[in-house]
Amino acid sequence: MLDILCATDLSPTAAAGVLFADDLASRMAGNVTLLHVLGKNERTGEGRDKAQVFMDRHASLVEHTTVTELMLEGDALATIAEEASRHAMMVCATHGPQGLRQQLFGADILKLVRKLPVPCLVVQDQSTVPARPGPVVLPVAGHENITGLLDAVVMLARAYQAPVHIFQLLRPGESPSDQLLENKKRMMLHLEEHGVAHEEIDVPGTTFSIGFAAGTIAHARKAEASCIAIMADASDEYRYMADAEKERMLTNEHGIPVLCAP
After folding, report:
1. How much is the pTM?
2. How many domains does the chain have?
3. Residue 236 and residue 204 in contact, taking contact as beta carbons nearer than 8 Å
4. pLDDT in the model for residue 107
5. N or C terminus: fewer CB in 10 A for the chain?
6. Gap between the Cα atoms of 108 and 239, Å rounded
7. Residues 228, 182: Cα–Cα separation, whole Å
8. Contact, 95 vs 105, CB < 8 A?
9. Which residues, 6+ apart, have CB-to-CB distance to 101 below 8 Å?
10. At which of 124, 144, 160 does a domain end?
11. Helix, strand or coil for residue 195?
């Protein structure tokens, strides 16, 4: 049985992640493990009791499957990454770059997903569980190894019973690299082999821009997408700008969930 890890800092924002984990687990006939890494003031006495109260409240949001509560001590990033290795995927919510309860789920969200050995769906406070899931938007990646991303996309597309949009932004005067062209073919072949409906979406850019986040988010909004699927790490081709663009997608103001794959 598939088990989804949901990491939480026990904040109201993190509750959005719990709702998505519950929805995905129910669609995949799986379970949810709710994880909180105890802060220094939560490890004993009144602090731990208070953390347990909030943990129980978050667990009560899981209505469609079984939930296991797990409160651990240790370095937050390392502890979450280690526990994630025992699960099929992880879900968490981000506070965005400002107004943080914990840095890990705010400014360091990209650092967190890059440490994970499994795919992670990142949602926001304003993200809503889709009643009728839209397509999964899959921008063409320039990485040499995209197998983990493709497997994660297949898993989510099947859960949502949604098609995949293989998205490519064509900049004026710029031809896609050989790696991008090869990866696009691999994406189509992988989805065909797993029986996932898909279509190519090639969008010509009207102005030159070195970034890819704005165009991807714009298409995802227009398509009413369930999520955007990206590699957590940067490719060699776009390493100089990838961190800022990935953070922009993870904290997009429209609350579009982002699936990050290792």
Report:
1. 0.92
2. 2
3. no
4. 59
5. N
6. 18
7. 20
8. yes
9. 9, 11, 13, 95
10. 124
11. coil
